[in-house]
Amino acid sequence: MSHYVYVLRCSDDTLYTGYTTDVQRRVAEHDAGEGAKYTRGRTPVELVHVEEYSSKSAAMSREYEIKQLKRGEKERLVDNQT
Hints:
The chain contains 4 helices and 3 strands; from the N terminus they run E-E-H-H-E-H-H. By secondary structure, it is an alpha+beta fold. It has a 3-stranded antiparallel sheet with strand order 2-1-3, sandwiched between helices. A hairpin with a 5-residue loop joins strand 1 (3-9) and strand 2. The model has no long low-confidence stretch (mean pLDDT 95).
């Protein structure tokens, strides 16, 4: 099973980072207002970055690292994806 860390750009131009095992399902949940409390009032969301890991612990560690980044650092991470 693969584990993913993802970054969403919300409608208010903020960035949200999360963990999942199914990226498309999770993005759909966020868009439907069923995702994280943070994204509920900030739909629609756009998937802007994804990283895949073979273990949950590695993915969760990376999610924490990304959440600790400053806004500019997150923007650079997202920009390097494209």
